[in-house]
Amino acid sequence: MFGIADDSVFSDFEEEELRRPIPRKETDGRTIYISRELRMPKDWGAPVLCDFGSAVPSDVEHLEDVQPNIYRAPEVILEVPWTNSIDIWNVGCMIWNVFEGGSLFTGQDPEFQTYRSRAHLAEIISLLGMPPPTLLARGQLTQKFFSNDGNFHAGIPIREQIPLEQRETSLEGQDKVIFLRLIRKMLQWEPSERASAKELAQDEWILKNL
User: Fold this and answer.
1) Phi-psi region for residue 150, left (φ > 0), alpha (ψ -120 to 50) or beta?
2) Topology of domain 69-209, per CATH?
3) Are 126 and 159 in contact (CB under 8 A)?
């Protein structure tokens, strides 16, 4: 979310509460208030990291099913032990969504008309090609989607591979080149091949657009 650089939002909120206190009730010794919305600020602040309710230590491997569906990293889908490199995949998807105005992946399964892991994997394959055997060998759910020789057999077709160059339509020339280079640093099948957050902080596109 974004911070608020317009302090009048909060002073207006306080004055409105003094004039018209919002309804409340007490239950089990707690006071519960009806929410009051803040008005839109005139000036936005810097992006703010928040909502760490599902945060876990990053220096150990995990197998929990995490991330919103369309942002799930391949290792999460396949139940490969994961670390903080899933966040790099997540950020890559989010940057594309914000900048391009649409999702790289939806996971929408045409048969079930809802999100399914097999549809998500098919979309990733359409973009990146087949996953490396080294990744498949570590997945607890690999056999559900891939044969022993690494072929995708999840009962859903893989669309024709469309490279990022054709999907990106808002940039031209060198700006397009360095933007796609940034996205590719994050969207890699193998977690170890993704750039670290420290490396991304020095990326040419990031530095140019700060």
Assistant:
1) left
2) Transferase(Phosphotransferase); domain 1 (1.10.510)
3) yes
CA-CA distance, 66 to 72, in Å (whole number)?
7
For 185, other C-beta atoms within 10 Å of its C-beta total 18
- Report the helix count and the strand count for the chain, using DSSP H and E: 10, 6
The boundaries of every CATH 1.10.510.10 domain in the chain are: 69-209
> Mean pLDDT of residues grouped by 10 in the chain (210 residues)?
86 94 91 89 82 78 90 97 95 92 94 97 96 97 97 95 90 95 98 97 91
Contact 180, 170 (CB under 8 A): no
**CA-CA distances (angstroms) from residue 180 to 75, 136, 145, 166?**
22, 26, 29, 11
Q: Which of 6, 7, 28, 43 is catalytic?
A: 6
Q: Is 43 a catalytic residue?
A: no
